[in-house]
Design goal:
Elements lengths: L1 E2 H4 L7 E2 L1 E3 L9 E4 L12 H7 L1 E6 L10 E4 L3 H12 L8 E6 L4 H12 L5 E4 L4 E3 L2 E3 L8 H13 L4 E5 L2 H5 L10 E4 L7 H4 L2 H13 L6 E5 L5 H6 L4 E6 L6 E8 L4 E7 L2 E7 L4 H16 L4 H9 L9 E3 L7 E3 L5 H14 L16 H14 L1
Parallel strand pairs: 3-4, 4-5, 5-6, 7-11, 7-12, 8-11, 12-13, 13-14, 14-15
Antiparallel strand pairs: 1-2, 8-9, 9-10, 15-16, 16-17, 18-19
Length: 387
């Protein structure tokens, strides 16, 4: 609960018990924010919100007003929702270390690995494609990067339960739609960039700009973990005030993997870290996952891990559910499941299978929903090329 004058510069100390952007969930003595979404305009649901008990309406358009209701007009209700939700939930992200992971592929793997490692040292949380997980709570996320109120409410609960580190996927949609504008990130990680989600962003340039936003949000006390092998590296480097930490395989970086050997059930490589070299045997498979391991190392360095802790953590990494996951079976065959979101992901998996397999390869694949119909032909062509 907060007083209205704690949330807005207004001479009214009404008690506010909840805040909402969906009129269906409005409760008595709440604030309703009229958000203009991609298909729905919250201004159309003001009467519904008032009927449900809203006492304050935050809007940006001319509207009819009712007696007994406080109306606050602002330039952008979504910006105000970010600001007010952060205040209402007592600035929860400032009470924990927040690691944001963005990129076309690898977000789920890196964020999950960070959470898995941190679980050995403190209460940690993961928020992303697979689920929301912390302190015994496990539930499905509505989106890879959920909407503002969901994020702030869950961060508040995490802080209340003593969570110390949160690994969060930051999707291009979530960044463009301002869902995490009020989150105070300590570390941001870039995995890679390829031409995806252009149906939403329109152009590759707009897609890249949405990803860069995460790094522009960082303070000078934060850390940006960047893939130096990506052609957009310099662009992302210039987009942030944070300290830069680099990782890569091809280009000279602070964190590097060399002499990589790929096997059907594990990987081996030499890890170059802080001028030292360590031979790593890691239960993570495929060369593209080596990049994810290096990105995870960067996040761990940013969280204060020393070399010994990092080496131990890499050796004990578990494959993420559904991401190059080997399925045990009694038929003496190797079954690998991978949730490929993008055409490039399929190609990477096919390349790995073609490289390490010494027998017959069978692929069961698909691209769900009408939105991905055109992708099916490309995937089939890739399968014919590699399998």
């Amino acid at each position: 609960m907060k007083r209205l004058n704690e949330l807005f510069d207004i001479d009214n100390d009404m008690k506010i018990y909840s805040i909402h952007s969906d009129s269906r969930y409005v409760k008595p003595y709440s604030i309703f924010f009229c958000i203009e979404g991609l298909s729905v305009d919250g201004h159309r649901y003001i009467d519904d919100a008032i009927f449900q008990g809203a006492k304050v309406i935050v809007h940006s358009k001319d509207i009819d007003k009712q007696q007994g209701i406080i109306y606050i007009r602002v330039a952008d209700p979504l910006d105000e929702l970010n600001r007010v939700s952060n205040v209402f939930y007592d600035y929860p992200s400032k009470k924990m270390r927040i690691v944001g992971v963005t990129g076309t592929s690898g977000k789920t793997v890196v964020a999950s690995m960070v959470k898995s490692v941190m679980d050995h040292y403190c209460k940690a949380a993961y928020m992303g494609t697979i689920s929301l997980e912390y302190d015994g709570v496990k539930e499905e996320c509505p989106y890879t990067t959920p909407e503002t109120l969901y994020v702030q409410k869950k961060l508040f609960d995490m802080a209340r339960r003593g969570v110390k580190v949160v690994a969060m996927e930051a999707s291009s949609h979530g960044l463009a739609l301002k869902r995490i504008d009020a989150v105070d990130f300590n570390i941001a990680v870039l995995t890679n960039i390829s031409d995806e989600h252009l149906d939403f962003h329109g152009t590759r340039r707009q897609y890249i700009e949405s990803k860069k936003k995460l790094f522009s949000m960082l303070s000078t006390n934060s850390i940006a973990v960047l893939n130096k092998d990506e052609e957009v590296f310099e662009e992302f480097k210039d987009a942030t005030k944070a300290r830069i930490m680099t990782y890569g395989i091809k280009n000279e970086s602070e964190i590097m993997a060399k002499n990589i050997e790929l096997y059907i059930d594990h990987s081996e490589f030499d890890l170059l870290l802080k001028g030292n070299k360590y031979h790593i045997i890691c239960p993570v498979i495929a060369d593209f996952n080596i990049y994810n391991v290096l990105a995870t190392v960067g996040a761990l360095v940013g969280l204060g891990f020393d070399d010994r802790m990092i080496i131990e953590a890499i050796g004990e990494l578990k494959p993420v559910d559904g991401r190059m996951e080997i399925i045990p079976n009694r038929h003496n065959i190797t079954i690998i499941v991978d949730y490929c979101c993008h055409t490039k992901d399929f190609e990477n998996v096919f390349k790995f299978a073609d490289r390490v397999s010494r027998g017959r390869i069978i692929a069961v694949l698909g691209a769900p929903s009408k939105r991905h119909i055109a992708r099916r032909k490309k995937i089939g062509e890739l399968a014919n090329r590699y399998l």
